[in-house]
């Protein structure tokens, strides 16, 4: 195996982490708001550390849709976790990679010498995405409240029409690219068409995700999860979107969602709408020695890339390729991979893109095909199709889980990557110390 070049500068260590169970949305707001999720995951994590919460240099939290009473949710959560008034806290947003962005921001501050010990993660409670008034309804309300006299108010009332009450679903708006006018599922259809990925391949991949997650749960491999309790005393201890009885035959009965006439992307081969949070503790070498911290992994390198929004799901290969070139790595040099499963078509598209010589030449600036990724090393404990994709959290979850996969398998090197709405990709290279 090729050896990653070690930087002569500072190192960034991942010393611990935790996440909540991912709770599937069921058509109504779930039992926890975003801040509650982040606090629950963080409380157990911080309780087992041998340093005080106030010892953090900063807290960084990724989130795409905090509620109106969670403005700068990073600060809200930091205060609730007992980090104290003197620890700065802030929120980052890079769509699906918000949680990964928080880790990258923390690492850059550690490398710059601005921070020594950072709590970084991501959270979203997608079931709490609001229903909004349309612009027309907001205009009517503004005119009604502005009317001072009774005749003016009656005139405003006379202009009211029941269709004004039709809500705008914020979640659907947020998952639609405003530049190209495609929702995320339609971009997956674009990728499937581009590489000739059929429905059977998508459904087979989706079933594999569920079966792998079910096996990981049965064998107790998801020890990054912290149990949660709601105000009624009900506990949540596992990712509840998993379907142990999933099969290709059952998925074949589902109808396409995003292109009803010709499409192949269904609810069954797409990620689930979910609530969840994930945290990692990052530390400099100085902080590791000072607090006598264990080391779960070392963040070696990261990369951000951009591409056509219509094919945003291929963002992982656009981010992983330059990272691997810089580190002089081949596919076989990576022991395990995490590619977030926004859609089965999207992950399969990434695999096909690296096998496609033309795509590699024209889009990735390589001389030939990069190679074929071994799916036996990819998302070995399942992915977002089975456990869900709380958008702000997923980037942090896959990095945290990669650390645990390397540890459990006594492996050396893992690469975590994620596609990003709007046409971007992010990737992080992790090594087990």
By oligomeric state, this entry counts as single chain
Encode the helix/strand succession as letters: EEHEHEHEEHHEHHHEEHEHEHEHHHHEE
Largest sheet: 10 strands, mixed
How many whole angstroms does the radius of gyration measure? 22 Å
Which class of secondary structure composition applies to the elements? Answer: alpha+beta
What proportion of the residues form beta strands (DSSP E)?
A: 15-25%
Structure notes:
The model is unreliable at 1-8 (pLDDT under 50). A hairpin with a 3-residue loop joins strand 13 and strand 14. With 433 residues, the protein is an alpha+beta fold. The chain has a domain at 184-221 and 299-431: Peroxisomal Thiolase, Chain A, domain 1 (3-Layer(aba) Sandwich). Strands 1, 2, 3, 4, 5, 10, 11, 12, 13 and 14 form a ten-stranded mixed β-sheet that branches. A two-stranded antiparallel sheet has the order 6-7. The chain is built from 15 helices and 14 strands.
Which features characterize this protein?
15 helices; 433 residues; Peroxisomal Thiolase, Chain A, domain 1; alpha+beta; two-stranded antiparallel sheet
Please outline the helices and strands.
Blueprint: E1 12-19, E2 23-24, H1 34-47, E3 58-62, H2 73-80, E4 89-92, H3 98-111, E5 117-125, E6 131-132, H4 135-146, H5 150-158, E7 168-169, H6 170-174, H7 184-195, H8 199-218, E8 228-229, E9 235-236, H9 248-251, E10 274-284, H10 285-291, E11 297-306, H11 315-326, E12 336-339, H12 344-355, H13 357-362, H14 384-387, H15 391-408, E13 413-420, E14 424-431
Parallel strand pairs: 3-4, 3-5, 12-13
Antiparallel strand pairs: 1-10, 1-11, 2-10, 5-10, 6-7, 8-9, 11-14, 13-14
Helix pairs in contact: 1-2, 3-15, 4-5, 7-12
